Structure formats: structure tokens, C-alpha cells
Amino acid sequence: MARFTRTIKNAAVAVAIASAALLLSPAAASAHTLGDAARSSGGCGWASGSYTTLDSRPIRRWSGGGWNGAQTGTVYLLWSNTYQENCVVTLKSHAHGTSTLTTAILYLYNPPEGDAYTDRGDYGHYAAVSRSAAGRCVRFHGSIDTTDGSTSQGTRTTWGNCG
User: Which range is the signal sequence, renumbered to this chain (predicted)?
Assistant: First the structure.
């Protein structure tokens, strides 16, 4: 009986050590990068991983009468020649890993206005949206709600990257 109890105790200790190691292990350095967002089915969905960064804007808090406060992330406009799609990725740098409202918007030119495609939710790392955009001009926008409840944003208001 003593041997059986010792075996159970040893097994329990091994499970506890393994659990602690798993909980304390840092995530892989590339776990939530722009490339991961481009390849992820929850991101751009470009399994090939091949894309070009066309433009980016810092996502900043409102300060001193403009969006020029602390940077909380970056919004990227990407292009995949393989899929003939644009993708907008809002990648968090502030509170990365903490779920807060995060938005990515891709606007496709469709006179007289534009069609807006949005990914908006409580995300810990990024929001991303992609659409077929060959031959169309685009704009983009990203926003992040911070842990203190303020909103930060970055945007390109002009149409560009046509074709």
C-alpha cells in the first residue's frame, strides 16, 4: 500500500510540475506577428503567407487636440498577389494579449462612396479583414480601445493603391 501511495504522490508531483511549466512558459516570439495575422484563418486567411505591406499608420490616443498621443498599435494595409486581395490588420502593441475592442476596416472604392468591410471584436492581438480588390482603390482604418477605456485610432482617409 505504501508503494502505491508513493506512486500516486510521485504522479501528482509530476503533473503539478508539468502544469506549472506550461503556465509559466512564454508564448513563442512570433505567436502574434503581422505574418501570423496574414496567414491565420482568423486574419487575412492567406495560407501561402505571401503578401506585401502597402501602407501603415500608427494607432494613437487622442491628445492635445489630435490623434497624436501614445501609440497603442499599428494598422497595416496588405496586398496578396496570390489571392488578389487587400487586407487590413490592426495589430496591438499596448496591452497585447489582453482582450479589448479592436477594429480593422477596409474601404473599397465604389462611387460615389465606398463599401466598408469590418472586423470588430474583443481581441487580444489583432483584428483583420480582407476582400478581393483587384483594380479598386482602397482606404483603411484601425482602432483599439485601451484597458483604461480610451480609444486610439489610425487611418488613411484618401483613396489609393488603385489597381
Answer: 1-31
Fold that domain 34-160 belongs to in CATH: Immunoglobulin-like (2.60.40)
Q: Are 43 and 89 in contact (CB under 8 A)?
A: yes
Task: Express each pLDDT in 12-59 by its tens digit.
Answer: 444 333 333 333 333 322 347 999 999 999 899 999 889 999 999 999
What does R_g of the chain's alpha carbons equal in angstroms?
A: 21
- Between CA 140 and CA 138 the distance in angstroms is 7
- What nine digits make up the cell of 7? 506512486
Q: Is the peptide bond before 111 cis (omega within 30 degrees of 0)?
A: no
pTM of the full predicted structure? 0.79
